[in-house]
Amino acid sequence: QHKYCTAMVRALKKHRDAGPFLRPVDIVALNIPDYPNIVKTPMDLSTVEMTLKARRYADTQAFADALRLMFNNCYLYNGRESVVGIMAGNLENMFESQLKKMPSGIDTALAEHKRQSSDASARTPTSATRPKRDAHPPPSRDLPGMQRKKSRTTDPQMRYCLNIVKEFMKKANFNIAYPFLEPVDPVAMNCPDYFKMIKEPMDLSTIKAKLESDHYASPLEFESDMRLMLRNCYAYNPPGHPVHEAGRALEARFDAKWAEIPIDVDARSQESHVDEIRDLEMKVQTMARQLEELRRGDGSVRRRSSVRSATGSPPPLSASGSATHYHQGGTTMSPTYVSSPPPAALASTRGRGRGRSIESLELTLEQKRALSARIEDLNPNRLRVALMIIKSAYPDLNEEEEEIELDIDSLDPFTLRKLYEYVV
């Protein structure tokens, strides 16, 4: 019976769901300080195995009671419907099944535990004679290759990410987060093939350490590690397994919290800038449609464009003297006459030479003719900019008039020079 009990414990330790029961509960690592208040007599498989090796169980009933105590402690603290409770149930079913196959008869070696234990205690050195072990400082918690950067604790997004991990590590989420609290130990968890299947292990304590040491450059890197941890869970644990189901529950809770992450102010400013550009593009398209409607709506509207030269004779816009059509954004546009702006508006545009003399800004007759010829060949995008340059000299221009006439000499030298340099 003693040999059978020993084999039974070894088989239980190899069970896939034995992880939470292999060692005594670490209330600090698991962040469950109230555990001793609820569970008065802790028990685990390693303690049962050590007691069995020391032959301290009076009979098989005492051995079975110790294992049942371990399962009941789990149900008491976690509940039977929790992930750890389900794992305990699977392990208990295996135990009860093997217990029924226990050989009958009394194992004398198991019954002689008192003499064996007394002899062992006589040979055990006291604390006064036992040599002291060298004290070693705990290893650094910094991850390998981790470089300390400027603290991002003031970043609301990174603080939010850290709070997510801290909340998952609280007792309230213990039932679904337990398998992810610490790195997987293939030896302790009896899963020697884990690293053959999982090439990039990840867990909550590692993610927390990265956050606290400013390892992540952005929240997206934090999210990537969280997704990696969950993918590892699904890859190693098949659907229906308690750990797999715990991963699904944790993922659902993470998705809900991730959707509420604070908005980045810089990203919001960039989006606002993009919206402004889109609004301007829509206004340009609206103006193009209005011009097209004017062109189609009234056949009596004269579609011609001319620029009067400095001598008063308007140079033609095209070789044939007919109206020239420009295609802009898929809409046909016809340059129209632009009426002279009011004297006040014209006066306001005079003298804008930006440090250059009026004489150096004024165009010659040949330059004006070149401007007239080249403006007809502009593509839609460049034509739009040219119209904006002309618009800058006509702030009171009424774009809804059917006929708009442009007098080249009505433009101030600065605007005319600017238009020439852009077009020619």
From TrEMBL:
Task: List, alphabetically, the InterPro entries matched.
Answer: Bromo_Brdt_II, Bromo_chromatin_reader, Bromodomain, Bromodomain-like_sf, Bromodomain_CS, NET_dom, NET_sf
Q: Does this entry carry the keyword Cell division?
A: no
Q: What residues does the NET domain cover? A: 353-424
Q: Where is the composition biased (Polar residues)?
A: 118-129, 329-339
Question: What GO terms describe the biological role, i.e. biological process, of this protein?
Answer: chromatin remodeling; regulation of DNA-templated transcription
Q: Where is the composition biased (Low complexity)?
A: 307-324
Question: Which cellular component appears as one GO term in the record?
Answer: chromatin
Domain Bromo: start-end pairs: 13-85, 172-244
Q: Which UniProt keywords apply?
A: Bromodomain, Repeat
Region (Disordered) residue ranges read 111-154, 293-353
Origin superkingdom: Eukaryota
* Pfam families hit by this protein: BET (PF17035), Bromodomain (PF00439)
Task: Spell out the PANTHER family in the cross-references.
Answer: BROMODOMAIN-CONTAINING PROTEIN BET-1-RELATED, FALZ-RELATED BROMODOMAIN-CONTAINING PROTEINS
Q: What is this protein called?
A: Bromodomain-containing protein
